[in-house]
Amino acid sequence: MKALQCEMCGSQDLVKDGGVFICQSCGTKYTVEEAKKMMIEGTVDVKGTVKVDSSDELKNLYEIARRAKDAENSANAAKYYDMILVKDPSSWEANYYVVYFKSMGCKIAEIWSAASDLANCQFSVIKLIKENETDETLQKAALTEISLRNIMISSMLFNAAKNHYEGIDTSIQHNFIQEYCNNASSSAQIMYNFGDAVDSIFEGKYSDISIQGWKNGIDIHKQYVKYLQDKTGNINLINSYGDKIRKYDSSFENPNIDTSACYVATAVYGSYDCPEVWTLRRFRDYTLAETWYGMGFIKTYYAISPSIVKWFGKTSWFKALWRMPLDKLVSSLNNKGVLNTPYKDREF
Questions:
Q1: How confident is the model at residue 31 (pLDDT cuts 50, 70, 90)?
Q2: In the 8-state DSSP scheme, what is residue 250?
Q3: Which tens digit of pLDDT belongs to each residue from 227-286?
């Protein structure tokens, strides 16, 4: 027996209704006699729905889609993977690459949305791999492929957002901090979600792949912490992913994070959030930052102090050297009315 194909639109989805066959795509009707003349290779159930063997068509679509993928032709790849998804909704490959290639073609204003879509699809795609790829070699190959693609696109989206923000005139740059943070955060979330999905769905079986996802998420995250209001909360989040990594790799160390904080004061007093440092941060934001020479001092301080603290910040002599002058400065500022209560850094 051969399958029916509509002469008007090419669809093979024809259903018998009463004494005629009706194309479900365009509505064209065919009599039984007309249907017999149009039959091509396939199977027809003349008592009900037309059953179509579309394996060859699906194979061709995969070939075209993969060719476009290898050529990094985002528009064609997204188009053909979308066609595959209609015919094969359980395909992890189509589910992932439809979102991936649409994200690849996004504009600056669309980074947050595109990266969020990709982050949100990680769990469903990884679950499809678990459900449909029973061979462990194929499972790991699929996860590795997604990992490499995620690393590439998360880095691309983050760097595009970062370069755009840094290219804005400094006099109005503060108006775009939130946009930059949203774009950067969603880029990091791609990697965090991927690592979490692989770890939970495969129950730690592919820990090396999970670790790679988490590490790349941390690498992005640590670069924009200094622009965030809740620095402490975000550092804690980064450290929580460090804990996940250490579950499988005990040698991993949490990164040193540039928060544009009071580096020396934080080293001396042991915390970025304590009364002494709250006082100094207020002095930085509302006294030094109000003058050109104060801003010059701030920029110089943040250029050299991270390295100094990295080298000597944990030594007792360093803390002793700075403790007395900092105590005097803090006391003087408090006497002048500078508060030592909890404080969030000022946005410029």
A1: confident
A2: T
A3: 887 887 898 999 999 999 999 999 999 887 766 557 788 888 887 778 998 999 899 989
Phi, psi of 49 (to 5 degrees): -75, 145
Lowest mean pLDDT among 16-30, 168-182, 217-231: 16-30
pTM of the model: 0.64
* CA gap 301, 319 in Å, rounded: 17
**What six digits make up the tokens of 158?**
């983050």
Q: Which residues is 15 bridged to in the sheet?
A: 22, 49
Contact 30, 21 (CB under 8 A): yes
3-state helix, strand, coil in the chain (%, to 5): 70, 5, 25
Is residue 187 a contact partner of residue 111, using CB atoms and an 8 Å limit?
yes
Sequence-distant (6+) residues with CB within 8 A of 346 are: 285, 286, 289
Q: CA 89, 94, 96, 98 torsion: positive or negative?
A: negative
Torsion, Cα 80 81 85 88, to 10 degrees, reads 90
| Residue 32: closest CA among 40, 22, 21, 23 | 21
Which residues are registered as beta bridge partners of 49? 15
User: Do 81 and 35 contact (CB within 8 A), yes or no?
Assistant: no
